[in-house]
């Protein structure tokens, strides 16, 4: 939606074709979806399902599982059945795994058709995808470009990645298959950004964004925010995965934070807090850490400001649903919808704020339901 009052907040999304990953639309006017990948052994269906459920609870729209062997695709039946979100099967080279995954109910195959082998095998995989309503993701990666492209270009570069992507696309299109998205990932943010910008011009396929092998939780989140943030801000990207050497749930949280920062998706409580200093009227850092954890279960998009003192507290509270600003004598001021509401002692403040946020979330949901009913 265009923001006419604050036009500097507008992001014009690239126009892409809409496809579906199971029930989740990707591309076109669909919300930018957030996905992750399990790191359990896929053949251990119980462990994989537990991780899929944890990711879905954290907000994952789509979850990918690796299918390196027959035992994995065999477990996929159960995983798909128990998952509340569409499952993408990650396949490398083995065309039979792709067919088995499609048969097992995968919503999407992550596979590069150019790596499958003979044209007959490509046709078989595409037929299985069509028969079972699977979409596909072509996953070009700077680290595994085809040898002839490396020889032609000398090293992984945006042109080589785009050429690889277009070659894979052609194989699908020649077989009249159009339910695909594409990614051109690299661990280098410059290379990934340039490749995505170029592929965005070259095709109308939806784009799956990712900075691959981004690193640890902290470093990888920063790197992903820079690489993907740059692209998303330019309107490029229809679904994202933050790749971290961390729990997949953390990838989901990081993905939402990136989208929330750009106003592209809203989920849960957006906490605005100050860094704290000698003026703080309470321990801001410890309070925010505890609130973040205690409010994790709230899915309703809303904002909360936790500010140490009156220097910035009232101004920040103006823009938030609930606010607390530290004051003197061990107490601070609570703001509701930007307005001063009541005083609250620092002792018991966290419980009080949690209660206010939970109540406000219920109200927001009720208002939203009423508006929806009125519109209908
Ligand atoms: S809002 Fe107050 S306590 Fe927080 S950093 Fe600024 S001056 Fe310090």
TrEMBL record:
Gene3D superfamilies: Dihydropteroate synthase-like, Sulfite Reductase Hemoprotein, domain 1. Residues 270-359 form the IspG C-terminal domain. Pathway: Isoprenoid biosynthesis; isopentenyl diphosphate biosynthesis via DXP pathway; isopentenyl diphosphate from 1-deoxy-D-xylulose 5-phosphate: step 5/6. One of its GO terms (molecular function) is 4-hydroxy-3-methylbut-2-en-1-yl diphosphate synthase activity (ferredoxin). It is an enzyme of class 1 (oxidoreductase). Its cofactor is [4Fe-4S] cluster. InterPro entries: Dihydropteroate_synth-like_sf, IspG_bac, IspG_bac-typ, IspG_C, IspG_TIM, NO2/SO3_Rdtase_4Fe4S_sf, RibuloseP-bd_barrel. Keywords: 4Fe-4S, Iron, Iron-sulfur, Isoprene biosynthesis, Metal-binding, Oxidoreductase. It comes from the Bacteria. It catalyses: (2E)-4-hydroxy-3-methylbut-2-enyl diphosphate + oxidized [flavodoxin] + H2O + 2 H(+) = 2-C-methyl-D-erythritol 2,4-cyclic diphosphate + reduced [flavodoxin]. One of its GO terms (biological process) is terpenoid biosynthetic process. Residues 17-255 form the IspG TIM-barrel domain. [4Fe-4S] cluster binds at residues 274, 277, 309, 316. Binds 1 [4Fe-4S] cluster. Its EC number is 1.17.7.3. The keyword NAD does not apply. Signal peptide: none annotated. Pfam families: GcpE (PF04551), GcpE_C (PF26540). Converts 2C-methyl-D-erythritol 2,4-cyclodiphosphate (ME-2,4cPP) into 1-hydroxy-2-methyl-2-(E)-butenyl 4-diphosphate. Belongs to the IspG family. This is 4-hydroxy-3-methylbut-2-en-1-yl diphosphate synthase (flavodoxin).
């Amino acid at each position: 939606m265009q923001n006419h009052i604050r036009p500097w907040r507008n992001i014009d999304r690239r126009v892409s074709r809409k496809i579906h990953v199971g029930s989740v639309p990707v591309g076109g006017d669909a919300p930018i979806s957030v996905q992750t990948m399990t790191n359990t052994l896929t053949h251990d269906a119980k462990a994989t399902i537990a991780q899929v459920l944890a990711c879905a609870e954290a907000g994952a729209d789509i979850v990918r599982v690796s299918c390196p062997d027959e035992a994995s695709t065999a477990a996929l039946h159960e995983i798909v059945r128990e998952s509340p979100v569409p499952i993408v099967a990650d396949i490398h080279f083995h065309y039979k795994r792709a067919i088995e995954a499609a048969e097992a109910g995968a919503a999407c195959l992550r596979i590069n058709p150019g790596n499958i082998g003979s044209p007959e095998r490509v046709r078989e995989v595409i037929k299985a995808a069509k028969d079972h309503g699977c979409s596909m993701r072509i996953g070009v990666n700077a680290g595994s470009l085809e040898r002839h492209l490396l020889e032609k270009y000398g090293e992984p570069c945006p042109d080589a990645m785009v050429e690889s992507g277009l070659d894979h696309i052609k194989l699908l299109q020649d077989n009249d298959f159009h339910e695909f998205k594409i990614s051109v990932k690299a661990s280098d943010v410059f290379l990934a950004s340039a490749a995505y910008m170029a592929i965005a011009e070259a095709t109308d396929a939806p784009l799956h964004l990712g900075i691959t092998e981004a690193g640890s939780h902290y470093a990888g989140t920063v790197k992903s925010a820079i690489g993907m943030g740059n692209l998303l801000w330019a309107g490029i990207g229809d679904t994202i995965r933050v790749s971290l050497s961390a729990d997949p749930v953390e990838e989901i949280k990081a993905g939402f934070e990136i989208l929330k920062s750009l106003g592209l998706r809203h989920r849960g409580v957006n906490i605005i807090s100050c860094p704290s200093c000698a003026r703080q009227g309470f321990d801001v850092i410890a309070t925010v850490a505890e609130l973040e954890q205690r409010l994790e279960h709230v899915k309703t998009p809303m904002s909360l400001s936790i500010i140490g003192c009156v220097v910035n507290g009232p101004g920040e509270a103006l823009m938030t649903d609930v606010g607390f600003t530290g004051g003197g004598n061990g107490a601070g001021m609570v703001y509701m919808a930007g307005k001063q509401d009541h005083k609250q002692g620092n002792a018991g403040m966290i419980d009080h704020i949690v209660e206010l946020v939970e109540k406000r979330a219920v109200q927001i949901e009720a208002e939203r339901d009423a508006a929806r009913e009125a519109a209908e």
